[in-house]
Amino acid sequence: MEERNSSATMDLLRSETMQLVQLIIPIESAHRTISYLGDLGLFQFNDLNTDKSPFQRTYAAQIKRCGEMARKLRFFREQMSKTGFLPSGRYDMSTDINLDVLEMNLGVYEAELTEMNTNNEKLQRAYSELLEYKLVLQKAGEFFHSAQSKAVSQPRDIDEYRVGDRSMDSPLLLEQEMSTDLSSHVKLGSVSGLVPREKSMAFEKILFRATRGNVFLKQAVVEDSVTDPVSGEKAEKNVFVVFYSGERAKSKILKICDAFGANRYPFTDDVGKQFQMITEVSAKLSELKTTIDVGQMHRGNLLQTIGYDFEKWNLLVKKEKSIYHVLNMLSIDVTKKCLVAEGWCPVFATNQIQSVLDRAIFDSNSQVGVIFQVLHTEEPPPTFFRTNKVTSAFQEIVDAYGVAKYQEANPGVYTIVTFPFLFAVMFGDWGHGICLFLATLYFIVKEKKLSGQKLGDILDMTFGGRYVILMMSIFSIYTGLIYNEFFSVPFELFGRSAYDCRDSTCSEAYTIGLIKVRDTYPFGLDPKWHGTRSELPFLNSLKMKMSILLGVAQMNLGILLSYYNAKFFRNEINIWYQFIPQMIFLNSLFGYLSLLIIVKWCTGSQADLYHVMIYMFLSPTDDLGDNQLFIGQKYLQILLLLLALVAVPWMLFPKPLLLKKQHEERHRGQSYTQLYNMDESAELESKSKGSHGHGDFEFSEIFVHQLIHTIEFVLGAVSNTASYLRLWALSLAHSELSSVFYEKVLLLAWGFNNIIVLAIGVIVFIFATVGVLLIMETLSAFLHALRLHWVEFQNKFYEGDGYKFYPFSFALISEDEE
Amino acid sequence: MGFSVTTLIFAMVGLIASLSTRICFNKGPSANLLHLTLVMTATVCCWMMWAIVYLAQMNPLIVPILSEGE
């Protein structure tokens, strides 16, 4: 917090000092150097070849190779998941594989696998076709039997039909045809096959229409679903046989069959041949089955071998691809013998990087070493905070709003404590706090195991924030003890309650109420309040005032941090003409309100604070009368009002005028030296595009900017203070919900004196508590505490327009891909 | 236990917590400063909350009025 000397800076408060470094690497050790730097993970490379397209870059071919290998690996993964294999998670990095050897192996495996797949497909298709053929043979054989027996009994029937008054439509015609054809052996053609069941009715109708009813169709249902050889999927089918005469009818029928996707199979009348065909087909089927099984086993073995090394190969290909991407970012020197790399690295890592470079040179047996050179630049460096597993979650919360500008104060330091604290103010119940604590303790105890696993999205987020939730639960237990709520039930844990009946009869307890007979309850809210009629007016007043006090405290902290920022960046203007008027304005209004609240509580006066604040503005010179809290209040109020009124133009006018004067001084000094410094200044201008260039100073712009800033602060002082009232609102909602669940569910169930009703009541209570209070309320309070930090706290001092340090690191890349 | 006594207790607890953090997690001056800041902030926050609730109950303007059925 305080920087008395530069060595006693605080860890997370400001970004690590970064430096722009230039590396000149000999070409033969380039690959190894980049690989070792990737292992170290502390160097961010700048792209020096932005004007070249991806295809023009030096190592484009290598990246294509890696892309091909990645595609083959994806293909393997797909095949493995289809067969139900999982690549084994463990892999040993002991054996180092050469990239070329790997490429060759992958190619060989891929060719084998694709060949196996096509063969398998062909065999499967033949198998299903034969199966269908067998079905056709079986079913159609039955038709012919029944059809023949019907045909024999035809002549008798026809006479009967002629005599009787029956419907004389198409069936008569068909049967006549059938009988004549079968008995006279006229050229009758037949088409047999399988048609999908859902299309069978339409198939029949269209056949009749197309051939004008001159066909005989017989269908039989196949009980089990059949694998269609063309599509490879199972479908419900019917076996059909169509008898027709004539060539035209035949062509029509064939076309209709094709249109309906009905597979046709040849069929003979001869019973003996039918039997022979069936035995042949069965034999072929069993042969095919064995062949297919052997093929599948073979494929399974291949996939297993691939599966053993899959993860290792995957990682290697990813690594190589990223190395080549980085190599593409480096520029080749004119002599073509070395590569130039430029990038950011933290100052503390200089020794580590240099030792890594030396090791790479040694390992690649190069004659020349790597040159490590620090460059000076006006560009803003990336922001880097060294976080551990506890602080990284909080830093991510802050970064989600905006990454800190290089070396400005990091709100993350205070967020580590104030965020869980404000959450707990809104959540306060020590029963719920204990539940959250136990849940998050499970995550932390199983940390090592769970961090390797792949959890779902939501669980992943919860696991990542486990330390945040741990802090939140610990503070919730504390505020729960203060609010005296254990699943909304108060306990007398810290001594006796302060309130008691006025006399021994307790007659007025229900009308006027109890009185305070003992000392104040020592820790937290008096347990006697719960369930009384005047509980809500008291609690509301308490919580609202608490929210204002906490809010004013946090906002003052924010303004104080802006002072430390101004001191660090040696910005005197900001200290005198921004920090001081802001402090004066906020504290003369809302700091004074906080003071009044505390004085009112200490003295127990009945002054109306709304009245006091409003009339301080409307008629400051009026006498306060009953609302007087201390002597001299009227004069103090007039003084504070004047201070606040003075603070506003103090914030608004001096800063732009002083900035203009500063710029003119700088500009005036430079105009004499500009002649022989022209080249340098032109270069600087082109490099630092963001900074104020010479003559780029627009006074009106600066003034408008300051005006907006002032208005934002002044209006924001009121609105932000009111915004803190959400602490009251959410804590009220939480306690009301919790008491409703307790009284209307649990106590109601208890009142029935029935074990089943009690059990149901307990289950409903548990579900309601977990679902509404532990999950929904947690999320809600989390969100509101976050908003209070992002807006009300951070807009007092945070600029947040930096960019994050993203080093080239293999660990980060493997995280990214997943 | 009055206001000032409990405030003193909070201060003592804060001091003990910062000392124990210094002993258990000693990781260099900058890290120590961070830990100290965190412990101080936590102590101040907890104390503020306790003090607000205590002060509000010292001279109450409203008293509990029991509701029927208690």
User: Kindly, what is the distance between the CA atoms of the first and last residues of chain B, rounded to a whole number of angstroms?
Assistant: 30 Å
Content-based structural category of chain B: mainly alpha
Tally of DSSP helical segments of chain B:
2
Model regions low in confidence, pLDDT < 50 over at least 5 residues of chain A: 1-6, 159-173, 179-184, 681-693
The share of residues in extended strands of chain B comes to under 5%
Any idea what the radius of gyration of chain B is? Answer: 18 Å
Please provide the count of β strands of chain A: 13
Detail the topology: elements first, then pairings.
The complex is a heterodimer of chains A (818) and B (70).
Chain A: E1 18-26, H1 30-40, E2 44-45, H2 60-83, H3 99-152, H4 154-163, H5 170-184, E3 189-196, H6 200-210, E4 216-221, E5 226-227, E6 234-235, E7 237-244, H7 247-259, E8 263-265, H8 271-329, E9 331-332, E10 338-346, H9 350-363, E11 371-375, H10 391-401, H11 412-427, H12 430-445, H13 447-452, H14 457-464, H15 466-483, E12 499-500, E13 515-516, H16 535-568, H17 572-603, H18 609-618, H19 633-652, H20 654-673, H21 678-687, H22 699-723, H23 726-751, H24 755-793, H25 810-817
Antiparallel strand pairs in A: 1-10, 1-11, 2-10, 3-7, 3-8, 4-7, 5-6, 9-10, 12-13
Helix pairs in contact in A: 1-8, 1-9, 2-3, 2-8, 3-5, 3-8, 4-5, 6-7, 10-11, 11-15, 11-23, 11-24, 12-15, 16-17, 16-23, 17-19, 17-20, 17-22, 20-22, 23-24
Chain B: H1 3-24, H2 29-58
